[in-house]
TrEMBL record:
Name by which UniProt lists this protein: Membrane protein
Chain positions covered by the region annotation Disordered: 77-96
Origin: domain of life: Bacteria
Naturally occurring in which organism (per UniProt): Sphingobacterium griseoflavum
Protein family per UniProt: Belongs to the outer membrane factor (OMF) (TC 1.B.17) family.
């Protein structure tokens, strides 16, 4: 009897500690979890940097619109032993003759026409910046979807943990009742032992379930890129949007699905690549100007010293006349890339519609399962209540009561799973249409 009482005390303390730990933890709402992920998550931060790089590259100078300005300085010195014979036959010689040549100045070059290639490059840089924004959107959607999935999985497992706490409480009361019945001679010792085995099973299941919840919370902390041992509790309310309409989802997916938008943008980039290649058929015109200074000193020569400074200017033009048919080949390849991009758009659109159709059917099925399992849980709860009353007065055996208890726990588990799957189906649909709301 003392051993049984000790076990009861340990069980009660276990439940009390669980309650105390929960009270001491901060509530983490799904909105807060998403906000933390948007700020800390490494994938999002890396994609932000890629987006910033694309924005920095989107300049007129990078596209080739602006002139280039260079400063030049050249200093050449020499010491030579020189011998010269002039035209008149005079011989001149000088050892260690010094020669100095200094040139410096500023030169400006400006390509004013390159077959409209600079315009195509500018448009391409703008599209690449949009690509960075779409990549950012896709990463955010994926990360938020992962946060939602983990958060609601924790809710499911936390609800299951609460159900096991209730089961332990019921089994503890059963053990107390069985011990009272045994003490007055209305039950055999075997019944007490069976009930205690059931209680042991419930406590063991709770320990495993607590480990599952703990590991899921660690995974969520990792996804939020914060300390892994931060304790928190979740809001166990699960709100499922049951008003999604398939036709509306298809329209939004065509307009906002990030994967589809990226492939459409890739086709635009392929078209701009063709423009850039076609620019090779036109001449390139470049203006050049500058202001330079030169100084020459010579110990032996006709001119001992000279200085010059002033402007220089000019224009250069070049055109590709023949390059072994490479221009034509490059244009054909660019057109093939455009055709492939168009095929990829149709392929991706079909894939999105297929995923949307299957996910929507799953969503409808899960909504029905939620309604069904909610009714089953209510029936199992009523059955357990009636069975408990009968067991208390001794009209049914502990085995029958255990069956009702296990049916109740199983009904709760199925209801929690149905809620989770319905919520995950909703999240998947909203991720496919590129619009996950909180």
């Amino acid at each position: 009897m003392r051993k049984d009482m000790n076990y009861l005390v340990i069980t009660i303390l276990l439940l009390c500690c669980s309650v105390c730990q929960t009270i001491g933890q901060d509530l983490l709402s799904v909105r807060d979890a998403v906000a933390i992920a948007l700020e800390n998550n490494y994938a999002i931060r890396l994609t932000k940097n890629i987006q910033r790089a694309a924005r920095e590259n989107n300049t007129y100078g990078n596209a080739g619109f602006l002139p280039t300005v260079t400063g030049n300085l050249t200093q050449n010195n020499s010491i030579q032993n020189s011998d010269q014979i002039q035209n008149n036959g005079e011989e001149r010689s000088l050892d260690n003759a010094r020669n100095n040549n200094l040139n410096y100045g500023v030169n400006i070059g400006w390509t004013v026409f390159d077959g409209f290639g600079m315009f195509a490059r500018m448009e391409r840089l703008q599209e690449l910046e949009k690509q960075g924004e779409l990549e950012m959107k896709r990463t955010v959607l994926s990360t938020v979807g992962d946060v939602f999935t983990l958060y609601y999985t924790i809710i499911e497992q936390q609800n299951m943990l609460s159900a096991l706490d209730s089961s332990i409480h019921i089994s503890t009361e059963r053990l107390r009742t069985a011990q009272n019945r045994f003490s007055i001679g209305k039950a055999a010792k075997l019944e007490v032992l069976n009930v205690q085995v059931n209680l042991n099973e419930d406590v063991s299941a709770r320990l495993r379930q607590a480990e599952t919840v703990k590991n899921l919370k660690t995974s969520l902390n990792s996804l939020l890129a914060r300390e892994l041992d931060i304790e928190f509790v979740v809001d166990t309310a699960v709100n499922i949007d049951g008003a999604l309409v398939y036709a509306d989802l298809v329209d939004k997916a065509n307009a906002f699905n990030p994967d589809l938008q990226l492939i459409v943008l890739n086709k635009r980039l392929a078209e701009l690549d063709l423009k850039t290649v076609k620019a090779g058929r036109y001449p390139v015109v470049r203006l050049n100007t500058g202001y330079n200074f030169s100084r020459l000193e010579s110990s032996l020569g006709f001119v001992a010293q000279s200085n010059a400074r002033g402007f220089n200017y000019g224009v250069t033009a070049s055109v590709n006349i023949f390059d072994g048919f490479n221009q034509r080949r490059n244009e054909r390849l660019a057109k093939i890339q455009i055709e492939n991009a168009g095929l990829l758009i149709e392929q991706q659109r079909l894939l999105v519609h297929t995923n949307l159709k299957t996910a929507y059917e799953t969503y409808l099925t899960n909504l029905e399962l939620v309604k069904l399992e909610e009714k089953n849980e209510d029936i199992a709860r009523q059955n357990l209540s009636i069975t408990l009353a009968k067991y208390t007065i001794g009209s049914i055996s502990s085995v029958e009561f255990r069956d009702a208890q296990e049916n109740f726990i199983a009904a709760i588990a199925r209801f929690n799973t149905a809620q989770l799957q319905a919520k995950l189906s909703e999240i998947q649909l909203k991720e496919l249409i590129g619009q996950i709301d909180l």
